Amino acid sequence: MATEVLMPKLGLTMTEGLVDEWYKNEGDAVKKGEALCSISSEKLSGDVEADDDGTLLKILVAAGDSTAVKTPIAYVGDAGETVSAAATGPTGEEDSSGAGGGADTDAGAGAGASGADATDEDDFEAGARRANRDTSGDGKRIFISKVAEKMAKKHGIDYSKVKGTGGHGRITKRDMKAYIESHPSDADSQEASSEGAAADASASGAVAAPVTAGEGLTGMRKIIAQNMMHSLHSTAQLTLHRKVNVTDLLATVSEIKGNVGPGDEAKALSMNVLLIKAVAIALQEHPSLNAHYDGHEYEQCDDVNIGVAVALDDGLAVPTVPNVVGQSLSQLRTVFHDRVDRARTGDIDTLAPGTFTITNLGTDGIEYFTPVLNVPEVAILGVGAQSTRLTLNGEGEIEEVVELPLSLTIDHQTVDGRTGAEFLSTLADVLAEPYRVLL
């Protein structure tokens, strides 16, 4: 019996994934554990593997298209096995209109379904492959991928005129691109109209709607672009900056390393691990920053799961250290480095959802910056490069202090500026007292 190959869900915030490339063609034999395709999602990319030996019977999501998580992207089964029409429809489910999943329906059924889907879809939540509820002039249901639909909207194209080459005549990104190239007048007229509307909006002081994110990009870069634009357009981001004194912390760490030697205990005292521990302590005193807000519901999280942004060759990953509270520095180091190693090797196993993120640009010499929220989280901490300065102590003597610049971005919809400032103040106190972090 044919089995579904599903788009994996890689984290709490993931709603859809992008198929970058198919390594196998329909009809190819596959073995259990063999990579079928590469996907990109959130800030990770990796391969989807076959769960069983068999034959790749049907590809449902073409390379370059996206689909919702936990929906079928292909079927694997015995050679010669037939996959039902209902299974190979663009949603992977039977048509609820009673058409049995086929591509053709009568005009009445199509019109009824149109009313059911009258609401606008969120670009970041809707599945990419679906049966469009509009119908063509001859009453046939139109199947179109999410990417192709976005292109049609952008260029003002009536996609009932476009011939689809996908399953059940589904219109793919390639089909839409080919149509635009062969009918430039259709696209040009819409773009001119859009430019005029944008000019009118600018003259009246109105804010134009954001363009579709990720246009012209592929793979992980496209997913990052979509996430960044979604974050900036769905939250009210405010960034607070301050320096904290880490002189005593660094001196104590240096002393401990000198006593224990270059072993695992010393390695556990890296700045990233110390910051994970310190942030968790501060979040316990300011739980409103350890929360999620998706635009509809605000929820404080019970566990403190801290993600740390890590640069990859082709993008960015945010491996998460779960359940930070109560763990020793040695335990935190082990988990942190395990997650980082997995991210850098393209491991796309589900990670614990983060509740707060740390991003460190200090090694690049940056002092202050404006970190972008990792939605639905409501706060992210940016860490800059350490610097030294001379100051007068309480006894009027000149001394050298080491300071660490911090940049805290909050979602001002749910977190007040004063609350963010108080969190930074608490974090500064924790870092100024070494044994609050080390014990």
TrEMBL record:
Which InterPro entries does the entry link to? 2-oxoacid_DH_actylTfrase, Biotin_lipoyl, CAT-like_dom_sf, E2/Pdx1, E3-bd_dom_sf, PSBD, Single_hybrid_motif
Under Enzyme Commission nomenclature, its number is 2.3.1.-
Q: Where is the composition biased (Low complexity)?
A: 190-201
Q: Which UniProt keywords apply?
A: Acyltransferase, Lipoyl, Transferase
Superkingdom, natural source: Bacteria
Bias class Gly residues marks the residues at 98-113
* Compositionally biased region (Basic and acidic residues): 126-137
Which GO BP terms, alphabetically? pyruvate decarboxylation to acetyl-CoA
Please name the GO terms that the record assigns under molecular function. Answer: acyltransferase activity
CDD domains from the entry?
Answer: lipoyl_domain
Domain Peripheral subunit-binding (PSBD) intervals? 143-180
Cofactor(s) listed in the protein's UniProt record: (R)-lipoate
**What SUPFAM superfamilies does the database record attribute to this sequence?**
CoA-dependent acyltransferases, Peripheral subunit-binding domain of 2-oxo acid dehydrogenase complex, Single hybrid motif
Q: Which residue intervals define the domain Lipoyl-binding in the entry?
A: 2-77
Cellular component annotations (GO), alphabetically ordered: pyruvate dehydrogenase complex
Region of interest: Disordered:
85-137, 182-201
PANTHER family under this entry?
DIHYDROLIPOAMIDE ACETYL/SUCCINYL-TRANSFERASE-RELATED, DIHYDROLIPOYLLYSINE-RESIDUE ACETYLTRANSFERASE COMPONENT OF PYRUVATE DEHYDROGENASE COMPLEX, MITOCHONDRIAL-RELATED
Task: Tell me the protein family, please.
Answer: Belongs to the 2-oxoacid dehydrogenase family.
**Could you tell me what this protein is called?**
Dihydrolipoamide acetyltransferase component of pyruvate dehydrogenase complex
> Source organism lineage?
Bacteria, Bacillati, Actinomycetota, Actinomycetes, Mycobacteriales
Task: Identify the coding gene.
Answer: acoC
